[in-house]
Amino acid sequence: MAKNKKSHGSGTNSNMMRNSIKKCCILFLIPTLASFIIGFVYPFCQGVYLSLCKFTTTSDAEFIGFENYVKAFHDASFVHAFWYTALFAVVSVVLINVIAFFIAYALTLGIKGSNLFRTAFFMPNLIGGIVLGYIWSMIFNGILSKYNTSILMETKYGFWGLIILMCWQQIGYMMIIYIAGLQAISEDMLEAARIDGAGSMQTLFRVIIPNVMSSVTVCLFLSLTNGFKLFDQNLALTGGQPFVFKEGGTIVKTTEMLALNIYNTFYGQNANARGTAQAKAVLFFILVAGISLIQLRVTRRKEVQQ
């Protein structure tokens, strides 16, 4: 009888402890949830509402429906920025991930000074985008001065200048993620491949790459979203220049990417275009979120469970 009372008492104590832990968890969750609502949910909902309004300040917003979205789709500069950004994202994603993977693979082969090389490749990622843009603009203008031109005068120079800058900054960061994935591969698996007679290329494509797909998923996601969201480097390196005149007097900046196009629309001379800029920002969010979710779904299917 005493034993039953004791077990019943201990059960009550454990239930009380679980309830107190739940209450503490809820208490700790409230500040995080409040910060998320104040810092993300409310501004996002406000931004969606403002994209349906004509305004110069948030206090004088006048609801006009989907007129801003119609203007955005008919804006030649926005359409050009979309295709330019898409091309930039594709090229930068391929180059960054291919180069970063093979650098990571080389540095996991036990070469001398690998730690020094890792540090050297990672360091550009610590430099801010604006600073990087100005540094590389001086470098490119110094090189192109021999041809009596500037990076701001040729669209092709601006495009490849942005690609080089993006690769130089991002490769080291992606390399670290790939190194973590490569080091997680079981040595027994690699040894089994060698015993079965697999060559270095067969081991790379049939054993190593399938087993680092989780790292590939992360790196593709980061490089893809960074490519679409690029702003600081674009502003500092080219500022969107050079520009051309389209029919109707529309000015199209040929190296202007989506984020910079939204910024220039919002802070341009025409304050009445702020609603259009907000509509562009909502479309930009839908585009990046949609592409990122598709990429995550596709690459996660190819991941190998170790």
Question: In words, what does this structure look like?
Answer:
With 306 residues, this protein is mostly helical. 73% of the residues lie in helices and 3% in strands. The chain contains twelve helices and four strands. It has helices at 2-50, 67-73, 76-107, 114-122, 129-144, 155-183, 187-195, 200-211, 213-229, 232-237, 258-266, 274-301; strands at 53-54, 62-63, 243-245, 251-253. It has a two-stranded antiparallel sheet with strand order 1-2. A two-stranded antiparallel ribbon has the order 3-4. 28% of the residues are buried. The mean pLDDT is 86.
Which strand-content bin applies to the residues? under 5%
What strand line-up does the widest sheet have? 1-2
For the secondary structure, the number of strands is: 4
**Helicity level:** over 70%
Q: Profile the largest sheet.
A: 2 strands, antiparallel
CA distance, first residue to last residue: 51 Å
Mean pLDDT: 86
Give helix and strand order, one letter per element, not per position. Answer: HEEHHHHHHHHHEEHH
Q: Looking at the structure, what is the overall shape? A: globular
Instruction: Find the structural class using helix and strand composition.
Output: mainly alpha
Unreliable sequence segments: none
Q: Total number of helical segments?
A: 12
Radius of gyration: 26 Å
Core attributes:
306 residues, 73% helix, 3% strand, mainly alpha
Question: What layout of secondary structure does this protein have?
Answer:
Elements: H1 2-50, E1 53-54, E2 62-63, H2 67-73, H3 76-107, H4 114-122, H5 129-144, H6 155-183, H7 187-195, H8 200-211, H9 213-229, H10 232-237, E3 243-245, E4 251-253, H11 258-266, H12 274-301
Antiparallel strand pairs: 1-2, 3-4
Helix pairs in contact: 2-12, 3-6, 3-9, 4-6, 6-9, 9-12, 11-12
